[in-house]
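User: Hi! I'm a student and our assignment asks us to look at how structure tokens line up with a sequence. Could you show me two examples?

Assistant: Happy to help. In each example below, the sequence comes first and the structure tokens follow. Example one:
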Amino acid sequence: MLIALGVLALLAFALVTLPAGIAAGPLRKAGIEAGALTRTDGSVETDFDLSFSGGDVQLRSARFEMPLAALNALPLGMPKGWQGRVSGQFAAIDLQQGWPTTFKGSLDLDGLVAPPPRNAPVGSFHAVFPAPQPKPSLSVPQDPSNLTAQVNDKDGPYSVDAQLTLSRARNFAFEGTLAPRGPVPPAMERSLQLLGPADATGRRQFSVGGTL
């Protein structure tokens, strides 16, 4: 479960730091053509302005939807073998020197399945950028340029309520609470116990962090 949250952090970080050059050649590698920007199994649609001198990018009314596998052709550093679909709707994205000064919208991961040999269903998640009520991270230093998102599960074996924090220095933190929905296998129960005791509602605190 915590690995899946790390994958969501990686995906979010990769998307928000996507270089301006993605609007040209790399999109074609993924089977997406400029103009309609449409795949047979997904689509990308946005209005954008590029500043070729400074590398600044402005996106408005950006929407995309595609299988996770499609992202393997892009320079995102996504781990291989994960299944599911990713979609996003963003009212405004402003990138300056590769980092978002404005990032407003939502990101969804649906039907997430871990790669072989586990092939385990992980569930679906919804992230809102920025977090409506951001909290200071316990492991990422506070900085006005930090990007935050409120992350909640949509369905699946675990109930998740967490905040994602991303920094310009490529540090990330996933911090919040989770609880299983119903009985879990003994091995998973032992993993949950490593997080510490559950509260009266059955939720446990967790923290996942590192450098991407």
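Example two works the same way, sequence first and then tokens:
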Amino acid sequence: MAMSTASRIAPGILWSKIQQQTRHALACGALQPIDTHYEFIEEGGMRFLVRVLANLARKEISDQHQAAQRQAGKDINPFLPYDENLFVANLSDTHLCLLNKFNVVDHHILIVTRAFEDQDTWLTLADFAALALCMGEIDGLAFYNAGRLAGASQRHKHLQLVPAPLCPDGSPLPLAQVIDRLGDGLPRANYTENQPSPQPFQNPVFSFRHGILGWPGDRPLTAEGLMDTYRTLLKSLGADLASDSPAFPYNLLVTRQWMMVVCRRQEHYQSIPVNSLGFAGSLLVKNADQLALLKHLGPMTILKNVACCSQVS
């Protein structure tokens, strides 16, 4: 049942609602942050942030419980019903905002469809309307893991947003530093001018299939602009937008300055999992052994092996 538009969050208060609900969820134990320590590894012109989990016990217990339920033929969906203690706000008739229960970054939020939609389906104008609302009030990195092979842990469609700064030392997002070096060389979407967008940029530093487009000037993000740019990027990577669902998994990354899409082929490489944050320059490992493996292989090697390596001509 669609909700009344009167129950939508009022403009300008989303950040304060997130902070308020975070305090409540921590106090009642609904929010269970995962402790990490971190270091930086430089490779290929990027300064990768690598977090090492200090205690994954609670998250592993939850994952094992869900796996056991699935084996018993039960499809567990933490968003239907969602935990009221993690609820932040109604964003629209179709979307709501939740806190990420097992967060590594403070104030990590989820933008979730109210009714079940599959994570393997295309993003819609309604998805981007909810995203534009959140990004209009919170400067950060939004991302979408399109399917299990792209790092999605839940089938129920949800975008995610982590406020800036992503790096604990306050430094800029690693990927943003690479893109910022392009300056005026970054092609920019023309969605406000009723003209086709230029061919997306492919950074030669990245030996995997991807596309990047910047936003035109300092204009605010709109649902229509996000949608058009998303479709332009996917089409440039060989997606058939007329099909019912994507033919390949992908990661979507969005900031107030640019959008990037990466084609995926597997969820991890040699036990190291990668979701959208990996391509933003932030990787997560479980222990010292995985950290040593990551250093031996190199972050770029891991990204190359989980992504599709050949570009579409």
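Here is something you could point out in your write-up. Residues 15-306 form a domain with the HIT family, subunit A fold (CATH 3.30.428.70).
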